[in-house]
């Protein structure tokens, strides 16, 4: 019997999924490709003590910044959080835990988690503060640090297009962290801009196979924000 993966809205798609203390992967880079509607639904649910794995923490009042404002986040596992004043204030006050990762290391930790690889060695951060408390080993005369793969209870991702079976296509740079996170969680919920029937997507265009995706919600509107607008002066 076919499983219906399409839900009417983000709140319905996360119904019975969320709980206090869970670990959530959230796709996006800056504000590009973030699962904004699903983040709003998490905020509205009131769940707390969350561990969030994401490249960054959004900005004040946008993206994951919403969950920081409501103090629903206990810990962030991230690469860069410099655009969020709320994050800085809570961290400096000892109210928020942070696990910093070099950006490539974070991506590989997520990819490894999705591939069933419990740990790997990388030269990035070896011999520095990043490596404190982690096993280090020399290979071919170079020092490497062991990093653990990452998995989550839930991954929320944003895709451009999906079919009703959950096959996902991403658009340009909005692809970023979304595909690897979709492989590394027990439950994957995708918000998409368009839903088509099975067979309507060229198989060569599919990035995330539907076997990884549990629930889909189609967005009524998409607010694609620009984090920092940089333009050159006209001649």
From TrEMBL:
Coiled coil: none annotated. Gene3D superfamilies: Glutaconate Coenzyme A-transferase. It comes from Rhodopila globiformis (Rhodopseudomonas globiformis). SMART domains: CoA_trans. Transmembrane segments: none annotated. One of its GO terms (molecular function) is CoA-transferase activity. Keywords: Transferase. This is Succinyl-CoA--3-ketoacid-CoA transferase. It comes from the Bacteria.
């Amino acid at each position: 019997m076919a499983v219906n993966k399409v839900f009417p809205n983000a709140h319905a798609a996360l119904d019975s999924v969320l709980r206090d203390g869970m670990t959530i992967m959230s796709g996006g880079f800056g504000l590009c490709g973030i699962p904004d509607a699903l983040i709003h639904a998490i905020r509205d649910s009131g769940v707390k003590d969350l561990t969030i794995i994401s490249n960054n923490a959004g900005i004040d009042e946008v993206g994951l910044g919403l969950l920081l404002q409501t103090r629903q986040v206990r810990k962030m596992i991230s690469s860069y959080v410099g655009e969020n004043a709320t994050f800085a204030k809570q961290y400096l006050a000892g109210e928020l835990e942070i696990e910093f990762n070099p950006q490539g290391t974070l991506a590989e930790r997520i990819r490894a988690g999705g591939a069933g690889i419990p740990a790997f060695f990388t030269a990035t951060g070896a011999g520095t503060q990043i490596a404190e408390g982690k096993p280090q080993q020399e290979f071919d005369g170079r020092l490497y640090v062991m990093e653990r793969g990452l998995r989550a209870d839930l991954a929320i991702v944003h895709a451009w297009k999906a079919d009703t079976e959950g096959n996902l296509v991403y658009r340009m740079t909005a692809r970023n962290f979304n595909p690897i996170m979709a492989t590394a969680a027990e439950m994957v919920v995708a918000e998409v801009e368009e839903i088509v029937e099975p067979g309507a997507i060229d198989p060569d265009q599919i990035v995330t196979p539907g076997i990884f995706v549990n629930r889909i919600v189609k967005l009524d509107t998409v607010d694609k924000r620009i984090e920092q607008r940089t333009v050159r002066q006209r001649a």
